[in-house]
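Tokens for Aminotransferase. Go.
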Amino acid sequence: MNLPVAQRLAPIQEYYFSRKLREIEALNRAGARVINLGIGSPDLPPHPSVIEALTAAARQPDAHAYQSYQGVPALRQAMSQWYARSYGVALDADTEVLPLLGSKEGIVHLCMTFLQPGDEALIPNPGYPTYRAAVHLSGATPVEYDLTAETNWLPDLSALARRDLSRVKLMWLNYPHMPTGAPADAAALAELVDFARRHDILLVHDNPYSFILNEHPQSLLAVPGARDVALELNSLSKSHNLAGWRVGLLAGRADLLQQVLRFKSNLDSGMFRPVQLAAAAALQLGPEWYAQLNATYRARREQVFGLLDALGCRYEPGQVGLFVWARVPPTYADGYALSDEVLAAARVFITPGGIFGSNGNGFVRVSLCQPEEVLREALARVVARTADRCEASAAARAAAQETVAS
């Protein structure tokens, strides 16, 4: 049977980590025991009370039926209270909060709801690859805006304003930024809101990293006037160690959320009720939860800094989030070259920055989602690799000198 693939998939490639994990799995089957410092999947468990809430809810006889497309009231209320407590943002739990099966789902929902062929959407370079894929799937055209170290990974809005923005309908934002770990202060967020208002663009802020190694969690919706031009995605994956549970949310204007629900309600039949109730319990955890989480990540980050020092990479120690972003030494063509060499020689995988866009080519990204003892082993392997290279270079020099002498 010759079944052609839909044209909408023509610009879409399989997700990089999907391919890379297969390669790593093959190496492991061959006995390599690769240390994976690539993907940002938290290895720590949820709080015990969250597991208990899940278990208790699963025992209820009415727990296993189809659920509301908008989530149970207890979850929406917990999400609303979390925003008020954490960000100082008041949300109507009935109309301004929409639970999602993870925020990645929301990225696609938003593009399919508000974009169509002929439209353009601004996406960050470097940035999360799913933004580009979702825009393509909608039939719209992704248009990159540059983020660079020279601008502290913030957009140059004056340069953007000089472009033809007449077809731009949506702009993707993500601060604290992934992959670079750059934060955005309130002034920068206010400038983005003003830019969107002047150019009639919907801002969508993807905000899953605000609690990780970040002293001042922020929501774009806290900026005066943002409610008119912005929506915000958030997630419990990183902040509460619930990555595999797939719990996210979309917050903002009720009329815009209602349009997203029109699309979403045709794709799923709601989230498992025990997961929703357990997520509500997670959102009620106090500041001591985040303090303990960040103490662990802070210690791990010091280990990653040591690994990057051993590789000769340069990095900003003040970056936040679940990764460390670092510039590769000038002896390497790009992050792919360094990543490939470290995987081959030390059996340690670090992410090449180029998968996030051309402005990431000279960088690598290292995840904090491994225990300290694993990170220490990764460092030992990298140091051993460096020693082996030095020995090989010394042997080559000695051989060359013998050749000249003879």
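Residues 372-405 form the longest helix (34 residues).
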